[in-house]
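Journal club side-thread
Mid-discussion, someone asked how the predicted structure for our own chain would compare to the paper's figures. Pasting it here so we can look after the session.
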Amino acid sequence: PEAYWNFFYENYEFYNNENSDLKKPYVIFLSPQGKQLTHKKVTELSEKEEIVLISGRYEGLDQRVIDKFVDEEISIGDYVLSSGDLPCLVIMDSVIRIKEGVIKKESFETDSFYNGLLGFPQYTRPVEYEGLRVPDMLLSGHHKNIEEWRRKESIKRTFYNRPDLLKNANLSKKDMVYLDELKEESGDLDD
């Protein structure tokens, strides 16, 4: 554990004088034992001024380091990797992209999980490729109808791929009617 003690005491004056006004960095240890990373957590982390990520290896990290320095343990899923390097990159990428000034808010507001649902299908040019067409609705130029189509597709994709997300999704009465139609179509009449 000495390397961690040295790192924190040499690089963060806070640890040498914990009664001072100096700010402590928010320290995260990436671990399969941590809380699951969610979009909500990414949003919370994006508001932190300074974050230190600790990437474990093999059996993890000395518990004394966790007890002394770590504010939170985070997992990116229910599986084990050979190190915490990739989870660190996942957190860095997901947090940095929603920091103010990195990309426009409108760009990530339609991403999966932002509104509790999976994202809608994306299409590019050409309009037709090997007999597969972009849906006519997207070519109509009618923004309100395109918005409604995207919302329905997002609900449909979530219903079929991640129905667990629907429990916490913010759905309107109109969305609920559409969801009931999907359930009826699929034969899934359970609530």
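Post-session note: The first strand starts at residue 26 and ends at 36.
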